[in-house]
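pinging the channel bc i need a second pair of eyes. not urgent but kinda urgent?? the chain im working w is below, pasted from the shared doc
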Amino acid sequence: MKCISAFICLIILMNVPQAGSAQPKDISKTSNEVIYHVLLRSFFDSDGDQMGDFNGLRQKLDYIQDLGATSIMLLPLYDAECYHNYFADDFEKMDAEFGTFEDYVALVREIHRRKMKIYMDMETQYVSYKHKWFKSAIGNLSSPYNDYILFDDAAHTVPSTMVFGLRALNSFDGKVIDITTVNLKSKAVLNYNIDLFKYFVDPNKDGKFDDGVDGFRLDHAMDNLDDKPSLTNLFVEFWDPLIKATKQLNPKVSYVAEQADWNDYGYAYFERAGVDRMFGFGLQRAIQAMDKQRLIKAADSVLVLNPAGKTQLTFLENHDLDRFASLEQNLAKQKLAAALQLLMGGIPSIYYGQEIGMKGVGANGAYGNGDGNDIPRREAFEWYKTVEGKGMTLWYKDSGIWWTKTNLKSGDGISMEEQSKDPQSLYNLYKKLLSLRAKHEALSAGAFAHLQNDNDQVFSFVRKSGNAVMVIAANLSASSQRVVFSKSLGKLKPIEGWVREVDGGFELAPYQFIVWEVNGKTK
């Protein structure tokens, strides 16, 4: 194919299917989805017990919408001994500390009234020692749940351990919790999960779905669970049938996989398990590294090469990872990372507090063999200039060294109260970038293509939707950089940021990004 100019060639290539890639997806009214990822216990407390709850989240929906998010993704809500609510005591019962089931339904309905979506995190591969399956089946070959639990012996006295050989986790309050693995090869377990997931899609079974979730996050959903010889080929035998069954009830339900096969980009989840979306870990790592070649490679894998109809989530943080503001103290780099996450493509997922630069690093076992090690990554959302305040979720106060060494500090500039008043704050940048996405279809749902330039320190790309074309350039370095694109780009109108034109190119300040809208005809 012969092109008149480099930029026209780029635009043509973006509309021609490439080997191993899918055509750009059709644009729809729901293409600007932005997810806000929330640990409910740590968000906002409505009743004064310092526990985040359903009513507290409902009271703060205005905040989430004003930020620019359109969907909410919650960590597990079912009854569990662990503060994070993984490892259920009872899948069918909401944690009472969050409120009643009626409170939950009121939250879901209010989210839907606002034309937002809600996703529920589910990890049904494990149960705690309090779960009825565990209590009934251990040492009891006549139990009705005899094949629900995975055992390592014929007498069913040795329940199979979970990943890393850990069967006991100390929760933050010192309790010991036994965890074991569910037998996902059991037909009865599959049928139970189908009924369970369907229940949360349509709790009152009226077919309206206003009280049901819009999708699920599947935590640790592996094809070969924890490399156990008896739990193989689960994509085909467990996850795909489960997903198909719930989609028969509501075809709009969307499944997001965490991706637990860390050594690849997880396309098997799309191709064999039937999930709709995945977390783009490769791009997350490349953004944090701020390495141009890694960004180019990861963007192709996460944003371009997905099967038709499948999408990846772009993210910087989640509840298992160190917060970016702790890894990177430079505010300019924090802002640049936000711009890359929100402008490159995919569906952004913002972990609560990320938008105000909350800090937190996992203790990596320093606090013993227990859940307390991850509390620093999951602290209370900082609503106020002072640590204390109405609705603050200090449920872990005075409970251990994670509180003694808390990241929450009064007057440090890391709070909603302080940053909302500062036009140059990280929070206000997030608002501005999310507003840009909402206004420009090319940024919210346009096809991505790497745009070559002459500088190894400047990463640039194009987003295109129909006739709308946006060009974004990012200086990944701590020094000013001059960058030159093709002369055939035409007229570039800056819509975010400003740069000086120098010798036929542009000069970007350290860690600066700029967003141009392509106006005028190419030559």
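so The two ends are 18 Å apart (CA to CA). and Residues 1-30, 163-168 have pLDDT under 50 and may be disordered. — does that match what u expected or am i reading it wrong
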